[in-house]
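We treat protein structure as text, and this decision shapes the records that our systems exchange. The tokens are whole numbers drawn from a learned vocabulary of local backbone shapes. Below, we set out a record of this kind in full and without editing:
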Amino acid sequence: MGKCRPICVVVSRGTTFTPEKPKKSRWRKQDVEGRAKVKSRTRRNLGHSYLDSRGRQREARVLGPPCQCKKNCRQLLQGTESSIFNSFWDLNTYDKQNTYLFSTIKVIPKKRSYKKETKRQESARKVMNQYFVKVNVVDVQICKIEFLSVHGLQNSSKRLKFIARQISEGRTTPKRDGRGKHQNRPNRTSAERVQSVHDHIQAIPRYDYYVEWCKERAIAPVEEDRYRRIFCSEYNIGFKLPKSDTCHTCDLPNNQMEANKENQDEYNKLRIQLQLHQTKAVAMQECLRKEVLDNAKNYTKYNISFDLQQTLPTPSLTIGPAFYLRKAWTYNLGIHDCVSGKGSMFLWAETTAKRGRDCKHPTKILTREDFHQRAPSGFYG
């Protein structure tokens, strides 16, 4: 039997209709955050343990030991080293961390120079770096070793060197992370090959046909995975069989609405008629659901649903002579107890009984073997 599905929303003359559901779409987005490389990069930026590109386990970042300098820098932090460490790695991205480091390093001219008894009389270093951290909203200067330890960068001293070099060059902000953003990609799919996928999808979207299509045009075809990703992410195309066993009351106004698109008054009238019909269907389903929930507590009455399903031609053969011969129809009546969740199927051929009001054979089976056996004690008085 046909089934009605609620789709609409209109309020007219005090009648409230159900909200319109959003249309389903085949647009699919790539799960970039779920990729193994992205997960590893996220864990690395958070200071957690991760697997590198070669599958090696990298240890998590930890607070380093205190320095051994004369200033005793760890005591200057007044117990805030853990909060500094956590705040730094909670920034989550490499660029934000570099921006923070950029603001905590000061580059000044070197204060003194010592002559060396070598070929180069003076040191090549022209500047010196100072490192600061916030302690109770006050900038406190500490040594480089303590600065690396308190940020968990014991093995990343080059990172500070690159940032200090950018400061000495006069930059006001650090450079953005350029790792993996080069253009030296010999295996990248060319724009011409990607366009060939679009041209073929607009014609007929099948990969095996696409390979033949490319051979005819002397174009190197892309891989099947690339073809599928372009089709799924950039096209809203779906394939399905035509609907069958639909609701007659829904199909009639739908067809009339297609024919009366230019007549706005008639179109709106048909639309309201369709919405009212579908709202009644939803209300009936809601009433059945509520009745089943109420009856599930004491089970004093039955909630039975019937469905005469699609008729089956018998026998089902694919050979030519049998395919065109007239077959006997087999009927299947489904009877479902909505409270207990149990269902029964009753099959019979048209040689035993017809379908409709004259079909008494399934009714006898239901009354004798289903109702009486499942009825609660005392239900029939």
